[in-house]
Amino acid sequence: MTADHRSAALMDRIYRRQRHVYDVTRKYFLLGRDRLIEQLKPSSGDSVLEIGCGTGRNLILAARRYPDARLFGIDISWEMLATAGNAIARAGLSSRVRLARADATAFDPADLFGEARFARVFMSYSLSMIPAWGRALEQAIALLVADGEIHVVDFGGQEQLPAWFRAGLRLWLARFHVTPRDDLERVLTTLADSAGAALVLERPYGGYAQYAIVRRLSGATTTWTPAGGASACPGEVGPVRRSRTSGAR
Ligand SMILES: C[S@@+](CC[C@H](N)C(=O)[O-])C[C@H]1O[C@@H](n2cnc3c(N)ncnc32)[C@H](O)[C@@H]1O
User: Which of 9, 139, 224, 241 would suit a FRET pair with 81, their CA atoms being 20 to 30 Å apart?
Assistant: First the structure.
């Protein structure tokens, strides 16, 4: 059995029953998803890809929020994709939102969708379930058009929350094969530097979550501050801003 098949089988096992209650239960602890959708701000006609789209909840909200954008989603779990496909059809969005089964660490969107590059790629609470998550980020950055952005929201280090809460949360997450990526800032900094990209990273909600935006800078763009600012989140630790100043690729 390949790594792809093992991951797919595990995700299908986890979500076979949970997918039916996923949206109702997750809204209380997958914090920052609506803010991510609000900050995507694609231009008219832009293509937007969610990696690890789960039940399609984010794609549906993004399609409604950005009626001129074209939306795509991949997930490794057939179970989740079945729920997503039904939800998207019920929302009357099947013509605007396309889905495919793929592993975030190795997929070719040109083959899947006939779309090779994206203006926005986002990952919402999927990195913490992908074992080779650095590889998935590297691949996602390679899919960006010039001035395109990756938005990532996931569990953070819970630095400002009580130690008992942090320990309990981590034990509970481990039961679902979820591992907060404490190295996210370091890994994204390295990837952004080598891709000629700028990075902004925040730790909102007392570090409960981390939210990163990586923007691939075109030759014409040498500095960048994300629209909406970094202070819209309560309890943030503070943004890390890095701007490329020359030689953007
Ligand atoms: C916690 S859910 C998040 C779903 C959705 N993004 C959200 O915000 O509600 C994580 C999703 O990542 C998917 N996933 C895990 N490993 C993956 C991989 N290697 N490639 C693609 N998707 C993966 C799972 O099947 C699951 O649907």
Answer: 139
- The residue segments making up the domain with residue 212 are 3-242
Instruction: Return the number of other C-beta atoms located less than 10 Å from residue 46's C-beta.
Output: 18
Label the pairing between strands 144-155 and 118-124: parallel
- Tally of domains within the chain: 1
Q: Which atom of ligand 1 is nearest to the CA of 79?
A: 25
Say if CB 69 and CB 47 are below 8 A apart.
yes
| Angle, CA 177 vertex, CA 156 and CA 87 arms, to 5° | 90
Cα of 216 vs centre of ligand 1, distance in Å, is 24
What does pTM read for this prediction?
0.88
Any domain includes 28:
yes
> CA–CA separation, 119 vs 144, rounded Å?
6
93-129 per-position pLDDT tens digit: 999 999 999 999 999 999 999 999 999 999 999 999 9
To the nearest 10 degrees (0 to 180), the angle between helices 3-18 and 78-90 is 50
Report the atom number in ligand 1 closest to the C-alpha of 131: 19
Cβ–Cβ under 8 Å, residues 111 and 36: no
Asked, for residue 26, whether it belongs to a domain, the answer is: yes
Alpha carbon distances (Å) from 95 to 21, 70, 76, 91: 26, 9, 22, 11
Assess whether the C-beta atom of 152 lies below 6 angstroms from ligand 1.
no
- DSSP-derived 3-state class of residue 89: helix
Give the CATH number of the domain where residue 140 resides: 3.40.50.150
Average pLDDT, the chain: 87
Q: Which residue lies with its CA nearest to atom 13 of ligand 1?
A: 52
Q: Residue 107: inside a domain, yes or no? A: yes
Judged against a pLDDT cut of 70, whether residue 21 lies above it is answered with yes
